[in-house]
Structure formats: C-alpha cells, structure tokens
C-alpha cells in the first residue's frame, strides 16, 4: 500500500494493514498520509472518468490498482447555483451542494463506501456502528452490497423512514432509549465481544477519505478553483475534516488556485459542543448534556473528531454557528420552496447559518459561498415541529 496512517493526536505512524481502529497509544483517530505524489497531469485522467462517481478520484484515494471498490455509484452530486435563495439570504454567488442525490439519500454514502471497501478487502467478517439515521442507512446498504452482515444501534427517536431504510437493507437494527453516544457505547461492546469491525465516525480511518471527495468535487466543479467559504452542518464532523484534508492535499499538489476556503460548522442550539468549544477557545469538545434537536444528524453530544474539527475551523479562518430548531426548519422550507431541493433539517441549519453569517458580514455577499444539503428531507418525514 502506498499510504501510511498517522495519529491525529500524538503523531505516531503505523502500517495500514489489517483493520485499524484508533491509535493504540492515545485513542485519537488515524489520518491517511500518502507516500505517492499527485502530479497536476493526473487531473486530466480524472476528468476523463465521467460517470464513475467519487471513485473517479481513485488517484487521490486509498485504493490499490486492480482493487474493486464496494460502490453503488455514490458521489458526482450537483453543485447548484441558487440565485433565488441567494437573493433571500443576501448572497450573489450562493451554491448548494446537494448530497441528497447519493444512492442512499445522503452524504454518508461516500464515507461508508470507502470504509466498507477497505474493510472488506482486509477480510472483515461483520460490521457494527451507531447512527443518528443516515450513516446506518448507508452502512446497511454497503454491507448488503459487500455481502457482509451489519448491526446498527439507533436512538428510538430516529425518524421512522430512516429506520425503515436500515431494516430494508437487511441490517440487524437495535433501538436504544438514549442518544447516539449511548448507541456508540453498545457498538463498542459488540465490536469487542464479536470481533466486528466498528464503523463508528472516526473509529476507522477511511470514512474521512470517502468524505474527502466532497472537497475534491467542489474544486473540480468550480474549474479547479476554491470557493470563499463553505457552510456545513456538523455532527460527527467527518465531512468537514475530510474537506479540510482534501483542500490541503490539492493546494500542496498544485491542483487548485486560491486559498483554503473558510470552513463554518453549523450545529443546533440544542446540541452545540463544537460551537461552545470554538467560542471558548478550547481545543476539545466537552460532552453536551441532554442533546435535543429535530435535526437528528446534529444530535451528537461528544464527537470523537472534536479536536480535528476545531483545528480545521481555526486554520481555515472559519467559525462555528448554532441555530435554533425553528430557524433550521425555516431554512429547509426556503431551500425546498425556492430551489426545488429536497432539504433535510441539517441542510436547513446550513441555510439558517449562511443567512446569519451574511448578515453579520462574516461572509461577503460577492464571494462564492457553498452551502450543504447533506441528505434527503423525505427520509425524515415531514413533521419537524
């Protein structure tokens, strides 16, 4: 393999062989570091791979020549010009990255495709993970695609359509009276007892590499230029960390012009550990007590990737914003009614945050602004009151 794993906490390195979880020394997530170079000429190869979804970027991903990924055609989602919504929010260059168009209805398809691919090639026999909804749907689908069993722990409060999708893909679904942190504890026990591969957010190194393709696609869709700012709803934060990693890799390789986009994480006021830590100047996130929000994907009280998210926000010159549920519900309504996008509540949170950032002058009305809709609203049901 032409990459190694580097601990994001203590800097220790290890060979990627086997089924790595977190650093044995400090418990922090691993990051993939490539030994190979990425010459700008490789861009032309990528541009010729039309219709291959996110795996068209295999030159910048952890896959060996000749390996076949576990794929359902994920990636290749549109970056939509949103003139009407932009006018409503105060932006002249508003763009919507619509991840609802993925095979399993959300951005989670990218990370789980990459994670299941590497684990299956390393001979994993079984998977387990906790979920707020969309990750469980994606894990169940890619487990089915790989012909490997998946156990999913989900809060009982997870929207019924998401639970229905998890069951439809054949996963062993267990409902928990609690939040995703409680589900995560059960998943870790199951992984230890059964030897199942734990696909929890950042407890294996490859979901980040799948989510990294969000940044790669945005760069290519903008003609290998980078936007001024990105507003992203962050629960576990894998996508935020992945884009930060992608932009640094592209800049170092000379594939793009411009500077690192300012990254803004969005959370709900009912569960905002990253926002609280950012505003306090902390380098870590303390657990949020009694997390409550209709945006189930943001109901993550103690993200393992908190340190990495805070680093990405600060190094990019961005920030963190918390919005109340009433505003994120209104944001989802605006995105759907003005632009025809099937907005999830987390996407609504990003719209509400973008409005605030524009109003406060933290984002210029004339710079390219990318706002994420991370999943399909239909999978949440329509009663978000």
Description:
The protein is of the alpha/beta class. It folds into three domains: 3-60; 79-103 and 206-380, Rossmann fold (3-Layer(aba) Sandwich); 108-198, 3-Layer(aba) Sandwich (Rossmann fold). Helix content is 37%, strand content 15%. The chain has twelve helices and 13 strands. It has helices spanning 42-48, 83-89, 108-121, 134-146, 160-168, 180-194, 207-221, 238-253, 273-280, 306-315, 325-339, 345-359, and strands at residues 3-7, 13-14, 30-34, 79-81, 94-98, 127-130, 150-155, 172-176, 197-198, 229-233, 262-268, 319-323, 369-373. The strands form three sheets. A six-stranded mixed beta sheet has the order 4-5-13-10-11-12, with helices on both faces. Helix 5 links the parallel strand 7 (150-155) and strand 8 (172-176). The longest helix is centred in the middle third of the chain and has 16 residues, at 238-253. The termini are far apart.
